[in-house]
Write a structure and sequence with these properties.
about 325 residues; single chain; 7-stranded parallel β-sheet; globular; binds nicotinamide-adenine-dinucleotide; alpha/beta; Rossmann fold
Length: about 325
């Protein structure tokens, strides 16, 4: 298939591009390089032997987005491009609504004009909001868009609705919405991975910044949750497993909207992650226990049974694989 990957130089997009090329697909990338580097294309070439064609385009620029799609013969679009920092989205809601929602509307309009009928969209477990004790086993049929705690999460919930409406208007349109849990790790080559600018929000990027000495110490937000060891538990998924989920989604694409959780189905605690990282890195990280962070739930975990059954997809890699691959990637950055 000839596939356009928006946000393809970013963290998950670059790993998915690698898996698509490995599977024999032809990939082109559109990205405005707001949160990624052009050098990623050389790394993709080093890993796969193929350098994808690249368009430095902002999805907010509709005429240029349409130029990319028109007459290019794309069969499908995988849409990663978006802003993703939860904390920043609270400070700059309009920037997030404009970039993520208008960017997606422009892409969908260009797809309609260019008659590209297959879409895979990066959504997030945040669309479920706070499901109380049921957050430990989130299922696709649960309500979404209720009690979402930040504008970033709202953009995902709203885009899901927009995509559903597009599918109602065009019965031939095929959309797969993938709700990611917590992506971690790096390609086993150690050439691509996650290297965020600024102060990250998520556990693994914070742990790696502490390890690199770029953040003084790791603050663990609360050790008094009702979990086995008192710290929060999350469903971590190796980015390569996540990337492969997109291939499975494309293979099983069908008219209408399909929605899948992409997670491992296993919750791992913050303490367990930190201990595993310290063991594999061979050093202790400076850390302290802090107060609970507003909005954090005790346990968030996927029920991934639908993806197992319908996509024939399952996670294969472990937390230890993810940490070892991250450490290899960090070593290559030095
Ligand atoms: N990483 C996670 O924890 C996580 C979890 C759930 C969902 N997601 C979603 O998955 C997608 C990819 O996430 P990621 O971690 O790879 O993020 P990322 O920031 O590494 O990649 C996103 C890419 O999109 C590009 N981009 C942003 N706005 C753009 C625009 N207007 N036009 C063109 N390019 C634009 C950025 O430059 C970047 O390269 C995002 O939509 C994100 O919201 C990520």
């Amino acid at each position: 298939m000839k596939i356009l990957v928006t946000g393809g130089t970013g963290y998950i997009g670059s790993h998915t591009t690698v898996e698509l090329i490995r599977a024999g697909h032809e990939v082109e990338i559109l990205d405005n390089l707001f949160n990624s580097k052009i050098e990623v294309l050389d790394k993709i070439e080093k890993i796969t032997g193929v350098k994808p064609k690249f368009y430095k385009v902002d999805l907010l620029d509709y005429p240029t987005t349409l130029d990319v799609l028109k007459n290019a013969g794309f069969e499908a679009v995988i849409h990663f491009a978006g802003m993703k920092a939860v904390g920043e989205s609270v400070e700059k809601p309009l920037t997030y609504y404009e970039n993520n929602i208008q960017g997606t509307v422009n892409l969908l309009k260009a797809m309609r004009e260019a008659e590209v009928k297959k879409l895979v969209f990066s959504s997030s477990a945040t669309v479920y909001g706070d499901k109380g004790a049921d957050s430990a086993r989130l299922v696709e049929t649960m309500t979404t868009g209720v009690g979402v705690t930040n504008p970033y999460g709202w953009t995902k919930a709203m885009i899901e609705q927009i995509i559903k409406d597009v599918c109602v208007a065009d019965p031939k349109f095929e959309a797969t919405i993938l709700r990611y849990f917590n992506p971690v790790g790096a390609d086993k080559s150690g050439l691509i991975g996650e290297d965020p600018n600024g102060i990250p929000n998520n556990l693994m990027p914070i742990v790696t910044k502490v390890y690199q000495g770029k953040i003084d110490k790791l603050v663990i937000y609360g050790d008094d949750y009702e979990t086995e060891d008192g710290s929060c538990e999350r469903d971590f998924i190796h980015v390569t497993d996540l990337a492969k989920g997109h291939l499975a989604a494309l293979e099983h694409s069908c008219p209408g909207v399909s929605i899948y959780n992409l997670g491992s189905g296993k919750a791992t605690s913050v303490f367990e992650i930190v201990a595993a990282f310290e063991k594999l890195a061979g050093q202790e990280l400076p850390k302290e226990i802090g107060a609970r962070r507003a909005g954090d739930l005790a346990v968030v975990c996927a029920n991934p049974a639908l993806a197992w059954e319908k996509l024939g997809w399952k996670t294969e890699l472990t937390i230890e694989d993810a940490i070892a691959d991250t450490l290899r990637y960090l070593k290559n950055l030095e």
